[in-house]
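Intended use. Records like the one below are meant for learning the mapping from a protein sequence to its folded structure. Do not use them to infer anything beyond what is encoded.
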Amino acid sequence: MAAVALAPVPAVLAQGLEIAPIGIDLADEGDTLVQAALVIDSAPVFEATRLGATPVAARAAVGLPQPSIIVGLIAPGQEEEFGLATLLPATVEQISFSLDDLAAREALRENEPILFERLISEGHLDPDADQLNAVLQTELARMNCYRSGIDGAWGPGSRRSVGEYFDEIALVDWPDPAPTQDLFRAIILNGDVECEIPVAAAPARRTTTSTAPRSAAAPRAAAPAPQPKPAAPAAKPKLSIGGSGVLR
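Structure written out for the chain above:
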């Protein structure tokens, strides 16, 4: 049996470890060549990183095969770090909140803005289709933009409330007032506003014209009738003295 020595195999770097394989003799058994390899040394050249953290480009640079199976668990919230397109169910379960839990909603928005945006924009909190209208009305009513009953009927008042909401957000133009999941996500992502309640105009003062007849003016006092002039005293008869000297 002939022994053939393998050529030296250069060390490679994988996942932060310098792996130096060595060759052993090859046993020639007829036409069959039996080959074996043994790794005897794996000294870390720097602090080892966690499993799966070696970039694919680095693996390709040293001639390692592309990984087809990744062994291990990705912790909730690490989707972006590992290049996952959507949130894992475990992450959604951990960070999701009830729509009426405003404190939890705002806490996630403030503390984990990237996770908050992905949770909403990927549709993980979208309401069921048969509940969408009522959910939108509830959100808009809470901000004084919708001022009618929560009945799920999407009428003029509901469409008007959408316009009022986006009027309060100067940088967002939303021309379509139809109830859609996109509208729901936009409202949750943009956050609360305070719509102004329109003040009812004071009714105009009515000027009433009285149709009652004016009271007749008091008649002027009639001028006193001219008093008749007192009759002139009857003329006293003239006394005549006759020749006999007797008054007649």
